[in-house]
Design a protein that fits this description.
Elements (H helix, E strand, L loop, with lengths): L22 E4 L8 E4 L4 E6 L17 E4 L2 E13 L11 E3 L5 E4 L4 E7 L4 E8 L6 E10 L5 E15 L13 E6 L4 E6 L5 E6 L5 E5 L14 E11 L4 E11 L3 H13 L1 H17 L2 E3 L3 H16 L1 E4 L3 E4 L2 E2 L5 E2 H11 L5 H18 L8 E2 L5 E3 L3 H18 L2 H21 L22 E2 H20 L3 H21 L1 E2 L4 E2 L2 E4 H18 L2 H14 L7 E4 L8 H4 L5 H11 L5 E2 L2 E2 L9 E2 H13 L3 H12 L13 E2 L6 E2 L2 H13 L2 E4 L4 E4 L9 E9 L6 E9 L3 E8 L5 E7 L6 E5 L2 E2 L3 E3 L2 E6 L4 E8 L2
Parallel strand pairs: 36-40
Antiparallel strand pairs: 1-7, 2-3, 3-4, 4-5, 5-6, 5-11, 7-8, 8-9, 9-10, 10-17, 11-16, 12-13, 13-14, 14-17, 15-16, 18-37, 19-20, 21-34, 22-23, 23-24, 25-28, 26-27, 28-29, 30-31, 32-33, 35-36, 37-38, 38-39, 39-45, 40-44, 41-42, 41-45, 43-44
Helix pairs in contact: 3-16, 4-5, 4-6, 4-16, 5-6, 6-7, 6-8, 7-8, 8-9, 10-11, 14-15, 14-16, 15-16
Length: about 800
């Protein structure tokens, strides 16, 4: 019965492109911690899948849910009350009720539904919400369907609880949250509220004029919420429903952090353009779904890959006077991060996010220049415009690496020209200020902050190596031969040092840190005590072994230390590790010492927490060395957490806690598949493309269509199809625009005997490191066939 209402005459259509994307679950009895997001670039709504709006959150204590219009919050929530005018009194009030706990929750790419079966009222109700693009408000629709078989007259009342308040870290700008005050505009049928100390406003109304309204600070619906908000109710009497029919009411919730006039303008826009706004967002999401369409044998991975494309859009955060870019995680981290985006943006590139990648890097760089000015890249930027953390060491190097990869995909030389001076400053900061002993290993906290060990860490060192290579390529692009040579020479020295000094041969692993024994001595008892408190026996054993190694060491002596954090995978992730060392390390990292049932442990000592980013880095590391079966295993582990918490999503912490959707999850889902398995490696700035496809065993028919390459005059689109068989391997590819050169690097058959044809004509292939390569100077649509001769 609940399934039928979504196909009612008033339900908006998704269209054939988006119809397959619908995930749901029964919601009655769910914990309030099972949350959802209705996403938009200006507003978004966070609530519980069961239809409620609980107080929760630690950044803004108890206030991270509700309706947000960054840099302010608008509402704690809203609730609908329904009463049957004819039967209510006779039934002792049982036919008057709040919509509290839904029976099912349904998630779609850009909107959600809560479905209710109200037996006492003989009604089905659907609550549907969506946040239009570029609008400072949202639209909430209630569909009510009669199940009694008689004409009905209902009284409806919507209660909304405001909480006009600032985002996290706003106190750094001297912003104070005042109590809210409100009023009812009877003529317009609106509830209006404002913050007493600030020009923050919210306006709520429907597609019809209310019968009456009320405003009180101590008026609540089904449950109380914290904060300095005020409640407003709007009542709609004698709402008629025909026997077996459906009645729909639309509510429009608009806000502004500048004036009531702007909030009213947005309200009118939402009310007068509801259908057009829906169609605009639907059309844009169709475009998202239609970019980078993959067809692979693993249909579950394919399904999750497609949903990740939508997730990317859920994170776009646009705040006037601050900027626009990819946020990190909902519900607690909707703002911008340096570290997170150096992973996220790589995952964004192969699925059409070229413009957003550049916008995000530009925002992070602008904030970093304003906050630091010395090349250091920030860690965290609140939507208030305040930098919460000036940046850990690895973030500067990671940012530089990311800049080069983004440039390779976009080919936007104007973007690189703007960023390049900061790249040089960042490398100077890493190798001068952050390397006081001159050993090329920068000091300072990295991704994993080992408390009290602000020392030389593996991820900072590895990403600095990668940043030096990126800087050298940028210098070559700008014709700075001396700078190029210096960066290349430093990269060689640093790479040798990492592969020598930070490699622990007896373990077959890279170390977490290079540090004086005295620093470890000063903290080791604290680490052991904490491991004991956690009951982490493996960690206690490993830490006590480290303590035994410290016995008799000169406190000033520096050596590598193994704490078994997941970042020891970074030498393999970046390709720095020689193959022999890489394979040894990866094989141990893939054992149950480092890999749990849902992915790679954050710590091989503690073995209790897994995360999509640690698992994603492992997937990339495996793919980097053509270990595609192993890479697929880790991609599948990420995908196995799909729907564990939020239908249509994967949680930050595997399998089902932390942020219920996290931006950098896309790194493990899209980057190894597109960059290494399909092997798409553009150099858009020179209109060149390398295709190096390598697939897991048993994958014989694959395709990737409408892959975006380049921006502006370098824009192009790639289609790639692969068919592998015992007789021949066939690679079909097409570029939409002419003028690009394409080099295809293919695995040579095991016995080396093959015939290569291009568009049906024999061609001589170049031998390259166990591969064969064919270059087409000006590529269009082609078929490359490698036929076995034995």
């Amino acid at each position: 019965m609940l399934q039928t209402i979504s196909s009612g005459t008033n339900a908006p259509g998704l269209g054939p492109v988006l119809e397959p994307y619908h995930e749901s679950r029964a919601s009655r009895g769910l914990s309030w911690q099972d949350m959802f997001i209705c996403a938009g670039n200006r507003t978004y709504l966070i609530g519980s899948q069961n239809g409620g709006f609980p107080d929760f959150g630690h950044h803004v204590k108890l206030e991270m849910g509700g309706l947000w219009l960054h840099p302010i919050k608008l509402l704690d929530g809203f609730w609908l009350h329904i009463a049957d005018r004819e039967a209510g009194a006779a039934m002792n009030g049982s036919t008057a009720m709040w919509l509290t706990e839904s029976d099912s929750f349904h998630n779609y790419p850009f909107y959600n539904e809560h479905r209710y079966e109200l037996k006492a009222l003989e009604l089905e109700v659907v609550r549907r919400q969506f946040c239009p693009d570029d609008a400072e408000g949202m639209i909430v629709t209630y569909e009510l369907r009669d199940l009694s078989g008689r004409s009905r007259s209902l009284d409806l009342s919507l209660l909304a609880r405001t909480d006009l308040s600032p985002v996290w870290f706003s106190e750094g700008k001297g912003i104070q949250d005042g109590a809210d005050e409100g009023r009812i505009d009877d003529a317009a049928g609106l509830f209006l509220a404002k913050d007493r100390l600030n020009p923050w406003h919210v306006v709520i109304g429907a597609d019809r004029t209310s019968s009456k309204g009320a405003v009180r600070s101590e008026m609540f619906g089904p449950h109380w919420t914290s904060g300095k908000g005020i409640s407003g109710s709007l009542s709609y009497e004698n709402v008629a429903i025909e026997a077996g029919g459906t009645e729909t009411i639309h509510f429009f919730m608009a806000g502004s952090n500048r004036s009531e006039e702007e909030a009213l303008h947005t309200f009118a826009r939402l009310r007068d353009n509801r259908e057009a706004l829906w169609e605009a967002k639907r059309g844009r999401y169709e475009a998202i779904a239609s970019r980078t369409v993959v067809n692979i044998p693993d249909k579950h991975v394919q399904k999750v890959f497609d949903w990740v494309k939508f997730h990317n859009d859920w994170f776009v955060r646009e705040v006037p006077d601050v900027g626009r870019g990819m946020g990190a995680g909902h519900p607690e981290y909707p703002w911008w991060f340096g570290c997170d985006n150096s992973y996220t943006l790589l995952g964004l590139l192969p699925v059409g996010g070229l413009d957003m990648a550049q916008e995000t890097l530009s925002l992070i760089l602008k904030a970093s220049e304003e906050a630091n000015g010395n090349g250091r890249i920030i860690h965290e930027l609140s939507t208030s415009g305040i930098v919460a953390n000036p940046g850990n060491t690895q973030e500067t190097a990671h940012f530089i690496q990311c800049v080069w990869e983004v440039f390779r995909w976009t080919g936007d030389d104007a973007f690189l020209k703007r960023v390049y001076p900061a790249v040089k400053k960042g490398l100077a900061w890493l190798l001068d200020e952050m390397d006081p002993d001159g050993d090329l290993l920068p000091e300072g906290y990295g991704i994993i902050e080992i408390e009290g060990l602000n020392v030389e860490l593996i991820d900072s060192a590895v990403y600095t190596w990668s940043a030096l290579l990126a800087g050298a390529r940028m210098a070559a692009f700008f014709g700075e031969a001396d700078v190029q040579a210096r960066y290349e020479e430093l990269a060689v020295r640093l790479g040798d040092k990492i592969n020598g000094d930070l490699w622990i041969d007896k373990e077959g692993l890279y170390a977490d840190a290079m540090a004086p024994a005295g620093k470890i001595m000063s903290r080791i008892d604290v680490y052991i005590e904490r491991a004991q408190e956690f009951g982490a026996l493996n960690a206690v054993r490993d830490l006590e072994a480290i303590k035994a190694e410290l016995d008799g060491l000169d406190p000033a002596s520096e050596r590598p230390w193994l704490f078994k954090n997941w970042v020891i995978n970074t030498p393999m992730e970046t390709g720095l590790a020689p193959r022999g060392q890489a394979v040894r390390a990866l094989e141990r990292m893939a054992t149950d010492e480092f890999t749990g049932p849902w992915g790679t442990y954050l710590s091989g000592m503690y073995r209790d927490q897994m995360m999509t980013i640690s698992t994603g880095v492992q997937a990339v590391a495996e793919a980097r060395y053509d270990r595609m079966d192993e890479s697929l295993r880790f991609i599948q582990l990420i995908a196995s957490t799909f729907n564990k918490r939020l239908p249509g999503s994967m949680s930050e912490m595997s399998p089902d806690y932390g942020c219920f959707v996290q931006a950098w999850t896309n790194y493990g889902m899209t980057w190894p598949l597109m960059s290494f398995m399909f092997g798409i490696k553009p150099d858009a700035y020179s209109k060149a493309l390398t295709l190096r496809p390598r697939f897991p065993q048993g994958w014989n028919e694959m395709s990737a269509k409408r892959v975006q390459l380049g921006l502006g005059e370098r824009a192009n689109t790639l289609d790639l199809e692969v068919n592998l068989s015992a007789e021949a391997d066939i690679y079909r590819f097409a570029l939409e625009q002419p003028g690009w050169s394409v080099t295809v690097e293919l695995p040579r058959p095991a016995d080396g005997a093959c015939i290569v044809t291009l568009d049906g004509e024999p061609v001589t292939a170049e031998a390259r490191d166990g591969a064969i390569a064919v270059t087409i100077a000006s590529a269009g649509r082609h078929e490359l066939r490698v036929s076995r001769t034995s």
